[in-house]
Amino acid sequence: MSALILALDTTSREEALRIASLTADHLDAIKIGYPLVLGAGLSIAGEIAALGVPVIADFKVADIPNTNTLICDQVFAAGCSAVICHAFPGGDSLEACVASAHAHGGECFVVCEMSHPGGAEWFSGGVAERFSGMAVTAGADGIIAPATRPARVAALREIIGTKKIYSPGVGAQGAAPEDVKALVDGVIVGRAIYGAADPSAAAREYRDRCR
Length: 211
Ligand code: O7E
Known about the structure:
Residues 3-206 form the Orotidine 5'-phosphate decarboxylase domain. This protein is α/β, with parallel strands linked by helices. The chain contains eleven helices and eight strands.
């Protein structure tokens, strides 16, 4: 059983709010990122949160510690409940994101292995394992790991123990909730819900399949 997180990658405020309103009852969280925030502004975070669904800011934060702190502080001031960051800038940069998240009562998730085919080029050979170890050391709340490669999710679970795993790649990228729902805490679905003819029905179906 896993939570269902909508990746709301539409680019207009009106469309985002329409989809969020239609689907919110079936979701555990909504993930927003550059497509929506560059199109609609960061204030969209508060507007979505006002619908009663937690908002996860997927900015894949990846800078020096001071800049990471400035970015994360903005994210939480805007009403987000969690932030997603990269591990490759190093442990101090990661710790800055975690500190900002926890200072605001929020959570920090670390991208450890990506779901697209190119992700297998970069994250195999021990890199994802190392990032997962860094997430543990930095006190992060969880990691991002690919639903498209369940065996890799299982391997990273061994490293992070009971920390959370949120897993993208379900729907448009070919994975099914059933592939990973026993391994992860949340499944991330984008196009298969927001691009569906009936987003509400699609969200309900994915929620049921995650249970
Ligand atoms: O393929 P979709 O439409 O279901 O959307 C997937 C979403 O998850 C989209 O926002 C994409 O940017 C994100 N994502 C991946 O697809 N793969 C990854 O490895 C990582 C992410 C991601 O969200 O990273 C932070 C969670």
